Structures
1.
Amino acid sequence: MLNQLNADGSLRHFLTTEGLPRPLLERILDTAESFSGVIGKSVKKVPLLRGRTVINLFFESSTRTRTTFELAAKRLSADVLNINVATSATSKGESLLDMLHNLEAMQSDMFVVRHADSGAAHFIASHVAPEVRVINAGDGSHAHPTQAMLDMYTIRRHKGELEPLRVAIVGDILHSRVARSQIHALNGLGAGEVRVVAPRTLLPKDVENLGVHVHHDIRNGLRDVDVVITLRLQKERMHGALLPSEQEYYRLYGISREHLALAKPDAIVMHPGPINRGVEIESAVADGPQSVILNQVTNGIAVRMAVMSMCLEHKAAETEA
Ligand code: CP
């Protein structure tokens, strides 16, 4: 497996939150905190990536991730290219690697990659030139590390340090790259208790080995938690009937006002988006006072600025020397 860190332990690529040391996870959050001040100013730019070229390579649809990566790169003063894969020369038979090498030949510094196949970002990172960086913007059901880090940042902003917190992740854990990355990040940052709440059909085999407490009954799973994270049913990755019906799923696992009342009164409600109202969450909860769903989107800009600048900081030092 490709090492995403440099020899000194700093970020080279950002492919997964699994196995990342706590100081590095904390440094991402602290760096994002420093960038949140920039975002609040009238001139929202810093020159950290001036002269660098970032290429957004999205082989799968995205609203939040692609646009906040673009905004983050622009706020770091990088030049950003968004490749429309559907109208690229891959439609004329060009292979992924040939496409990559052509984009590299344009002196690109970083690829931000989203792909429907698990492992795609690792594959690309292991084939790019040594000076090029790769950030995983979501690969299949494997990982979505910047989503997990913006979620950690959102939790820390609203609830403080993670050690005393109980966090419940509810829903389609089986197909969720977000849930996997969140679990690794929560455990890496020392969260007090991480629960997964789902029917057996929507949990990976041996999920306990990820360091979580498993609940099938939401009434136990949400009791006294500080943070409720709900997930979309990822039908595009489902093979066969895993649920009796969406109505039944909502009745048993939907984050309704009734279910939310089981959590602590000041619990926050999170969702990585896109949300399906009336399937995994009630509208009154999604738009209610405990929801921080839109804060997550805003925080994505600062966290992605942090990750991009950290991946390229060695290169910046090399250029200055
Ligand atoms: N959370 C997330 O990845 O959303 P998008 O698919 O819109 O990027």
Note: Residues 62-65, 138, 147, 272-274 surround phosphoric acid mono(formamide)ester (CB under 6 Å).
2.
Amino acid sequence: MSGIIVVGAQWGDEGKGKVVDVFSAQADYVVRYQGGANAGHTLVVDNKKTVLHLVPSGILHTEATCIIAAGVVLDVETLCQEINALKEAGLLQNPKQLLISDSATVLLPYHRMLDQAREQSLGQEKIGTTGKGIGPAYEDRASRKAVLFGDLFNKEALKLKLDSALKEKNFLLENYYKTKPINLNSLLKQIAEWSEQLSVYRSKDTSLLIHKALKAGKKVLFEGAQGSLLDIFHGTYPFVTSSSTLAGSALVGSGIGPGTIQKVVGITKAYTTRVGSGPFPTECDDAIGEKICQVGNEFGSTTGRRRRCGWMDLVALKYAIRINGITNLALMKLDVLSGFEEIKVCTAYEIDGQNITEYPVSPGELGRCKPVYESFKGWKEDLTQVRMLKDLPRYAQEYVNFVGNQVAIPIDVISIGPGRDQTLWVKPLF
Ligand code: IMP
């Protein structure tokens, strides 16, 4: 058993990129299995920032092989730009560092156009998507009309598929959303350029590759995107993304079975954030939320949008632990909480005059829940220079211990800054 799944335990932006980067030092393979360029994984190495949207966060470790598996919606234009930036920075020299499944769904410019047009037409009712075309691309997959990565290398079949797709998309774009249609020949020309650049990364059957690696005892990290509460089935529907963001999705998206998974590491911030619309019980729409936002630099790495901020929500975190089967936690951005007089943690919700401790799955109900808090004494000390667990200030330790006791699973990692060295290990990874 040598597979480790890394999942977001909140509404995304928990710091999965940093964790996967740090874990990748010990991994042979790093696999992205769902989502697309809606993700923004920020890595800081030697004070240099790299933001990845599609390339797995293991790419900065040249000895690890990064895989984009079948469950991903692959924005080929964005991927080409990302690869060019990595190459220019000298971070992707060897094409063998990145392998792409032939079964991944190709995301094309019309998916982005449809996503944005739809959001605009929804007005106040909008989901607040990233506008990256994720929903329309997964819709094509589900309706069995998607262009797959392997199709890019069969010109005749691709032309037929796109011709048929554009008939429908252009009808919608022109007549329903009143925007410009897409020209088939110009699109084919663009795709030819993108596929030429990406052909060196083509790996056909990545499921077989991962299977063999696991069988040989290789260390495989599965890198989730977005967070559990944005899951299409178990999140705050309809304010969710269009893929399953849970640990189970790592298996489906990569094409492997569950027996090979050693642990599921859930990533949570020491507080909570959310981008886009939807219920968020512990949101602090006040000076506290503003302070968390500014100190934590809580602005989206994909869209630049300000993230909504609030206190740690243990009801939601325990739900995420349950629906993912999370076995271990990484607690991120603890340093951001320095300087607060009082720190709050939500341990229950109050709804219709009653306290509940199980997360309500109906978004209507969640929207009516009020947080029930426990208060903790804050600490003043800057944590970013701490390198040993025992050097955390007393009140920070009390806070971490309280969270650990409440969730009843081990906290393996505590992060106190974006750098690799700002990571406190409670337990080794493998
Ligand atoms: P979509 O995935 O672009 O369709 O957006 C659907 C919802 O998921 C919106 O609320 C987005 O803000 C949110 N979302 C999508 N990707 C991320 C992410 O990587 N981090 C945080 N929120 C995300």
Note: DSSP finds twelve helices and 19 strands in the chain.
